[in-house]
Amino acid sequence: MKIKKDHIFTVFIIAILISPYLLAFLNAPQLNFKLDRSWAWPLVAGLKQASLSALVSLLFGALLASSLFSCRTQKSYGRIKMILLAPNFIPPLFIILSVMSLSGALSISHQGLTWVVVTHSLMNGGLVAVALSSYFLQNVKKSWEVARVLGANPFDRLVRLWVPMMLPVLKQNFVLVFALCLVSFSIPLVIGGASVTSLEVHIFQLIRSEGNWGLALSYSLIQSVLVLFLAYLLWRLDPPQENALSQDSIVSGLPRGLIFLSFIPLLLLAGIWIFDSLTQALTLFGDNLFQSFVLSPLFLDAAINSGLIFLFVFLMQIFFSMGVLSGGRTSPLEAFFQGYLAPSVAVLGFTMSMLPGEGEIWLLIKSSICFSLLTFPLLFRWQVLSTWKDLSAQLQVARSLGASGSVLFWEISWPQLKGAVLQMSLVAAVWSLGDFAVTSFFFSGGKTMALIIVDLLNKYRMEWASFLSFLLFIFGLLTFYAFQRIFTHVRD
Amino acid sequence: MSVIKNIFLKRESFSVEVPELILRDEGVTALIGPSGSGKSSLIRVLLGLEPLTGWSWNLNGVEISQVPVEKRNFGVVFQSLELFPHMTAKENIEFPLRCRNYSPSQILERTDALMDSLGLVQCGAQKPHQLSGGEKQRVALARALAFRPDYLFLDEPFSSLDQDLKESSRELVRRTLKEFKVPALLVSHDKGDVEALRSSVFMMRKGRVTTI
């Protein structure tokens, strides 16, 4: 297959994205690992947890979708959509703290399968709601209305129309949430407890507790095969999106009060923890021990490291995006992003560990690359891909007028997509502040703010952990806001 | 004749104000106007798909504005036809009859008669994506007429067809409506549709209706 000059950079970026899988598979024979049945139990437990999480997320998402159907204008639809998607942008560490605060308020244990399923559903329910409502409004609503006019009662409409016509998007979202929950690491690790685990958690424990890289890699390969199969399914299940969402398609007549349903996930995942953190803050101001801890070199070092990772991740996301966009939109590339799922943290960690460089700055760079490879495919699909698709008519016109690849990129695609790319990169950078899954592969002890917070949780210093994570969250939000303002000012 | 009163619909970017509109109880009433004049919004209010209170339409002794959408006994053909993609042509036509709990023999009799009348016998087992543009349109029309509606709404039914097909479709609709004796409201921006089909004409411009 001849690769055009314009596509070289894109192929290079795609190669980087899939390199962890390739490197892991290529190195498998050298590690002398053995495949034994000890992978079966965590795999089955992970499949069980992921299935339940996906099913409950679908049901919860269908309920949350009613909040979108009750919107009367495109503006309110857009706002409610953002509220529903917000939980996906909260770093897992903060979600864990929220669950712990909530369980503390209810005086029950925060561990177990139920909590894992509930947490995953609160995180992903909004995502499902947006996907279901968008698909329904674009592809099913008019048929729904015709059926109503022709005399179909609600049961008829549900069984004869809604289920068969929504099946493609239901299947796709089940597989997507299943895949996300299967490779979920932080939630099962902290909230799952002894009875709930996953292959990902088991791999982590093999590496951190036993240093058994050989066995860890063998399990990673099993998981990677499963993830690649799920990615293939996602690509095959991609339901066709047709018309743009118009004002007509939004108005549906459900009671406006349903809009408040959309706030449930955000309140439970962030509201309680924020309230808890603020009340803790009042007791911490007079705590000399806390003050000396915050002023210690360890804390300062961790803050700087977190800041550097934030910056590296931000720049890497922009770099990857520019690389993909510069090659031009093609069907195979779109299909790749529609289906591709990032490798697990373990596979990524293993791949990075094979790269040269051991000093602290190299470990920071490696963990940033790792984190970017983990988040880029998903964020690109959520935030940039559909906007890029919308530009296809413009690109075709420009091409027929004689524009080269670089002109198409610099004068058509980039000016219209840089806003979405910047936003995506900022989200990834804010996410990185709350990451401990990736950084714990490269660092031990409190080398980043997130690792310090996890350390504090392990030492039952809940109030310190809660408050510090709240500060981190505020820092992330303020930086996000500041960058947005600077960008808008420069653009104008 | 029946009279529609007090339709005042306000949305973000447009409004529809129809204090009074007289519809014929037979033949075709045409509502013409440029794109964006509010014609489709008016149809949606009459069908009950646009939530609106305070308006009235007494049709055959029934106050339509108070009747749930499913019970109004209206037929509709939208511009996009909206055939159910997972059902065959025959199943699409049978759909409203099944919703009204017609017996299997009644469903068979009605469907066969309609398909014969509209030249759809050969394509009954095919799914919408396998049908030609003209066939899809006839299936949509058959589905809308299967249960003998009190009124038929045609919202730009021919605008996506080429000229030859438009003319034959107009003739088909005119003949079918005459045969089934169903009054219809035709919404279109094409004067050709109006000239071929209408008994009376109203013009809609910027949300307001005027007689021609």
Describe the 3D structure.
Chain A has two domains: 1-30 and 285-492, MetI-like (MetI-like fold); 33-265, MetI-like (MetI-like fold). Helices cover 78% and strands 0% of the residues of chain A. Chain A is built from 21 helices and no strands. In chain A, helix 13 (297-326) packs parallel to helix 16 (360-390) and helix 13 packs across helix 20 (449-458). The two termini of chain A are 43 Å apart. Chain B contains six helices and ten strands. By secondary structure, chain B is of the alpha/beta class. In chain B, the strands form two sheets. In chain B, strands 6-7-8-3-9-10 form a six-stranded mixed β-sheet, sandwiched between helices. In chain B, strands 2-1-4-5 form a four-stranded antiparallel β-sheet, with helices on one face. Helices cover 34% and strands 25% of the residues of chain B. Classes of the chains: A mainly alpha (492), B alpha/beta (212). The A-B interface holds A 73-75, 142-143, 145-153, 156, 160-161, 164-165, 247-248, 251, 253 and B 11-13, 40-41, 44, 47-51, 69-76, 78, 80, 82, 84-86, 95-96, 98-100, 143-144, 147.
How is the secondary structure organized here?
The complex is a heterodimer of chains A (492) and B (212).
Chain A: H1 8-27, H2 40-69, H3 74-85, H4 92-106, H5 113-149, H6 154-182, H7 186-192, H8 199-210, H9 213-237, H10 247-250, H11 263-284, H12 288-294, H13 297-326, H14 331-339, H15 345-354, H16 360-390, H17 392-400, H18 405-433, H19 439-442, H20 449-458, H21 462-491
Chain B: E1 2-10, E2 15-23, E3 28-32, H1 39-47, E4 56-59, E5 62-63, E6 74-77, H2 89-99, H3 104-117, H4 133-145, E7 151-155, H5 163-180, E8 184-188, H6 191-197, E9 200-205, E10 208-211
Parallel strand pairs in B: 3-8, 3-9, 6-7, 7-8
Antiparallel strand pairs in B: 1-2, 1-4, 4-5, 9-10
Helix pairs in contact in B: 2-3, 2-4, 4-5
Our Rg estimate of chain B from Cα atoms comes to 17 Å
- On the 0 to 100 scale, the average pLDDT of chain A is 81
Task: Write the element-wise H/E pattern of chain B from the N-terminal end onward.
Answer: EEEHEEEHHHEHEHEE
Q: Say what the CATH topology of the largest domain in chain A is.
A: MetI-like fold
Tell me the number of structural domains of chain A.
2
CATH level-four homologous superfamily name of the largest domain in chain A:
MetI-like
Element string of chain A (H = helix, E = strand): HHHHHHHHHHHHHHHHHHHHH
